[in-house]
Amino acid sequence: MAGSDASGSDARAGWFAVLAMWTRAFIWSAVIKVISMTLPLLQDQFDTTTWILGWVTSFIGTATGLFDQPVSTNKLISSSTTITSRLMGRWFRPGYVIMTCGAMIGGSVIMASFANSPAHLACVFILLLGTGFGISSVLIKEAIARCFATNYATATGIARTGDSIGLFVCAPIIQVFIDTYGWRGAMLLVGAISMHLVVCGALMMRAGAPSASRYQKLSANDGISEHPSQLPSRCTSFYKNLLEIFDIRLLSDFRYWSVAIIACCSKFAFHMWLIYFVSQAKSNGFSLQEAATFVTVGGVGGLIAKLVQGFFLDRGVMSSFHLTAIAVAICSASYCATPWLTSYWPMMTSSLLIVTSSGALCCLQDVLSKQVLGVDLLVGAFGWTAFAGAILQFSLGYLPGEGPYKPSEKQLAIKFYSPYIIGYIPPYHS
């Protein structure tokens, strides 16, 4: 399904990139679910409140965005220059970077199993877990976009099924882990599973996954300047090159923001749903096993949605704009209805619609980015979008879990972040 002009090596690299993206998405679901399902246990273990643990968990998404794209200072790591995905892709081959990220992700979850306080979890999530997820995400998505000149939506849909299968498989398995080995043993086992991303990076490295060139060819008349007084012009040239490397121009591009706003809002809402859904379901009167069943069924819907959207877009059945509008409307309505649902089947239906719509949206974000901006700007677009999402998640990630789960508060919590999505349908047609 790679481009028709691609060689056998490029096609093989493309499918290895799809495998790496699938594995990363599966690991992401496993990590988020083991944290969300152990949230009540961690609250008792550390003698703390739900909103503090939820905020600590949101550090994963915050660090993911901060290490996707450059920022000189931030509230978490002051006076330090962050590692960027674009520079990592230029300095090293993507396979090496993804292998390192896999080791960081697996090691961080294993280290979290030995935590004795929320501060320990926060340190591990910021320095290792979020960083590994953030850098690997951008580099893998860029590799897929470069390898698949055609059928990109289908390739993205297949790669994104990892988190849907993760929701389907991980929820009951992690419940068994918790019942058998406790929360520490469950995190230890999930950390071991996360090490599989290292193997995917090795496969990409062997296949030679494409990336932006690190070097530029010099023209014949380039050489050492005979006029030392040209230092100011060289500084200006360095400044312009720095802006180009980090794709700063995207921040003033309306096309970028038309895609980034809906991506940030939908991702934030779904991550908050993943983190707080188990606690919310328990407050609605459901058991932990029933909550796991809701998530499992939702994972099936998300899996189907990711495959179907690729068929619709690549075969021209529906445009990406219309499909995005439908998914956003269904997802927002389901978020708003969830706090009032106390019966089994309505709650099951709400979970199914949320995960199904979110599954389609996560693929449509990548497709829209490539259609609107082109493949050469994808690294910067993905990075800056993740950075903006990180600021949103760090600033507001504690709100859905603030305070005890009383009916009025939980209704306000869910309604707070869900309607933001529906007002940001970009005003263009693809």
Structure characterization notes:
The structure is a single chain. This protein is mainly α and 430 residues long. The protein has one domain: MFS general substrate transporter like domains (Growth Hormone, Chain: A). The protein contains 16 helices and no strands. It has helices spanning 8-37, 39-46, 50-66, 85-91, 94-112, 118-147, 152-194, 196-207, 231-245, 254-283, 288-314, 320-337, 344-373, 378-396, 407-417, 419-422. The longest helix has 43 residues, at 152-194. The protein is globular. One of its GO terms (molecular function) is monocarboxylic acid transmembrane transporter activity.
In a few lines, what is going on in this structure?
This protein has 430 residues and is mainly α. Helices cover 74% and strands 0% of the residues. It comes from Patiria miniata.
Arithmetic mean of pLDDT: 74
Beta strands, count: 0
Computed CA radius of gyration, to the nearest angstrom: 22 Å
* CA distance, first residue to last residue: 22 Å
Output the CATH topology: Growth Hormone, Chain: A
Report strand %: under 5%
Q: Write the H/E string, N to C.
A: HHHHHHHHHHHHHHHH
CATH top level assignment: Mainly Alpha
> If helices are DSSP runs of H or I spanning 4 or more residues, what is the number of helices?
16
What count of structural domains? 1
Identify the overall geometry: globular
Spans of at least 5 consecutive residues whose pLDDT stays below 50 are 1-6, 65-83, 213-226, 403-430
Amount of helix: over 70%
Q: Which architecture name does CATH use?
A: Up-down Bundle
Largest sheet: none
The CATH homologous superfamily is termed: MFS general substrate transporter like domains
